[in-house]
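In this section we walk through a basic example: taking a raw amino acid sequence and producing a predicted 3D structure, encoded as C-alpha cells. The instruction is simple. Fold the sequence below.
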Amino acid sequence: MIMLLLPFLFSLAWGSAPSHWSTLLEIRERHEFYQDNEVISKPKGAWQTLFAVIYPDRALKLHKDCVYYRVPGELPGVLKLKAAPLEKSCESFMDLPGDLEVINLKSLQFSFSNELIMHFTFADYRSLKWTIPLMNQFKSETPAPFTSSAVYRAPKLTLLAPVRPVTEKKEVLKQTPNELCHSINDECEELQPSACHQCSDGWYEVPNGCQQGPKYCGSQSCGLKNQPACRRGMKHQRVRKKYECRIDSSFAYCAPGLTVQCEGSRAFCR
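The resulting C-alpha cell sequence is shown next.
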C-alpha cells in the first residue's frame, strides 16, 4: 500500500495532478448544484461528492476515481480521491479513507470544458492549480451522466477504448416525465437497482433524508422553485426512518427566498 501511494505523494510535492489522470476520458456523477469556478462554501463541514473521472490503464481497461470534498467549516477542507468500480455510485464509498488526500484547504474551485481545472487555496494562502486535458474533447461544459463512446479523440492522439463489450446492447429508457430509474422508499430501502445510467438525457435525485434518494430520468436543477431540494452532506441526513422530512427538513436546502416543502419523505422547493 505504501508503494502504491508514492506516485501520488510525488505528484503533490510537484504541485501536479495524479499521474494516472494524464489519460482522462470523461467526467461522470457531477454534483448537481456546484457551478463551474464556484467557490464551494456550503454545506460547511460536510463531505460532498464532486464528480468521478474515468481513465484507461495501459491495457485500455477503464477505471474510475471518485472525487470528494469536505467543505471547510470548523476544520480546514479536504479533497479525497477514491478508486471505485465503474458500475457503482461514488456515494457508496464516501465514508472510506481516500487513496489520496489534499488537506488543510481554505477553498476549492473546479470547472470542465475541454479540460478539468481545479484551483486549491490552502489555509496558509498558498495556491495550487491542476489542469488535466480530457482526451475525448467534450462539446459541452455539462456532460450527460454515464455517456460513453467507443472512440476518443484528442488533437494529437486517437485512443480506441470500448466502454462496454461490443456485443452488449445498451437499452435506453423512454423519456416520460419523472420516470423512476432508482427506487428508494421512505425507509431508505433500495427497492430496485439503479438503471439511471440508461437514461438518455441524464437523471436527477429527489432528497429524502437517506444516504441516497429516489432518482428519475431527465434534467432538473436542485434548489430552484418547484424543483427538488438540494441534498446536504452525509452528516446532515435524517436519523429516524419514517416521514421525518415534515418534522425536520434540515437534510435539504433551497435557493434564497424559497422554503423546503415535503411530499412524504421527499423534499422540494416552493
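Looking at the output, two observations stand out. The mean pLDDT is 77. The chain is about 5% helix and 30% strand. In the next section we compare this with other chains.
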